[in-house]
Amino acid sequence: MIFYIILIFATFFAVILLTKSVFDILDKSSEEYKKKYVSQAVDDFESMFIYITPNQLFFLNIAITAIILLLAIMTFDTWTFRIITATIGFFIPGQIIKIIKKKRLEKFNKQLVDALIQMANAFKAGLSFSQAMQNISEEGIPPLSLEFELALKEIKLGVPIEEALVNMAKRVHSEDLDLVVISTNIARQMGGNMSEMYDTISVTIRERFRLQGKIASLVSQGKLQGFVVGAMPLLLGMVLNKMRPDLMEPMMESWFGVILVVLIVILEFFGALMIKKIISIDV
Q1: In terms of Cα–Cα distance, which of 178, 128, 191 is closest to 155?
Q2: Are the beta carbons of 202 and 113 closer than 8 angstroms?
Q3: Is the same domain home to 15 and 71?
Q4: 10 Å Cβ neighbour count for 112?
């Protein structure tokens, strides 16, 4: 009798220790996630002048995952598809942030060409560098006008023009802007025709846009093929799960079926990475 009591208490304490360890691991994992991924996402938002705290973004991510899991429970009959869908949904906010940042960068680069032509004309009219930037910040549209306005505020607070331009380049992460900033700082230190330099850079960036558009049209077919081939197994599995659940449920209820589905998802992921690597051409 005493042996069984000791065994019950030992099991009870073992369960408590195991639960505490699991919660500690989850807490540490959540902190690491906030530190690495959520903080990076917050920095991306701040670079786009969207201010949100890491905790708000973390709970927003959890809420979106919960909503997607609820929709998956209402749609699928097996927990394997539900868990896979919820796992994919957990990474959707991060991908949305990347898409928004990419679209903003593309818009900034297109506006930069017109801004360079405007600054070149301003120099020909006898305006100073700060006055030319002031015209762009007032007459331009976001996001370019916001970045120039912030750079002007730094200059008015006593920050050197070269440093303000470097800070703007660090915020935007644009290769075209990096070229403009480096060329501008060198020209201001060594001397040179600023208007002619900006005209040359604008022509170079326009030619680069033309090449990028041509490459995008050539690789669009490869992107479409990769998407169709990658989505076909998942869509086929969903259709079969709806049409013939008597055939799909036995597979999902066995360990072999679950391992097979996980293996398919892993292979799909690596296949998508390989296709992305093949069609990614940097100009």
Answers
A1: 128
A2: yes
A3: yes
A4: 23
